[in-house]
Amino acid sequence: MEKGFGAELQDEKLHPAKKKVLQSMQDHWEGLTLFVDNPQVPMDNNQSERTLRIAALCRKNYYGSGSEWSGKLAVWMFSIVATLKKHGINPRKWLRAYLQACAEAGGKAPEDVDKWLPWNLSVQQKKDMAQQPDEQGEASEQQE
């Protein structure tokens, strides 16, 4: 395929639109074929698009963010929820525990915020906040 479009690009009578497409393929060939030698790289970005879909749907349903701060809050929350889910943690359980810790700290963030990062949770915390098998299936079904 690479040889084929290389040869076609040599044709002086090539339509400009076709030349533009073939030139783009030539310029991006390494990235377009990265998955061939690296099976861990997906052929498409469907998983990424499915992950972002929920945020786009929410934005549509909320008619945009009414202010800059609410838009930032939405971004932070989507990021937190996605990170927790990737680590098998139920976002509601984690958020409930985190907000309880904030209340116990006088309405402020706990002094050691790092201990709330999913990769720093204790084994018991991970167990207490783990997503149930049906929650994990539900989450993956929603993403498809």
End-to-end separation in angstroms reads: 32 Å
Order of helices and strands: HHHHHHHHH
Total individual domains: 2
- Average pLDDT works out at 83
The percent of residues in helical segments reads 55-70%
Structural class: mainly alpha
* Total number of strands: 0
Q: State the assembly state of the protein chains.
A: single chain
Radius of gyration: 23 Å
Helix tally equals 9
| Biggest sheet architecture | none
Uncertain segments? 137-144
What percentage of amino acids are in beta strands? Answer: under 5%
User: Which of globular, elongated, flat, extended, rod-shaped describes the shape?
Assistant: elongated
Any key phrases for this structure?
single chain, mainly alpha, disordered C terminus, 144 residues, 2 domains, 9 helices
What does this protein structure show overall?
Helix 1 crosses helix 2. The protein is elongated and about 75 Å long. The chain is an all-alpha fold and 144 residues long. It folds into two domains: 36 residues, no CATH class; 98 residues, no CATH class. It starts with a helix and ends with a helix. Helix content is 65%, strand content 0%.
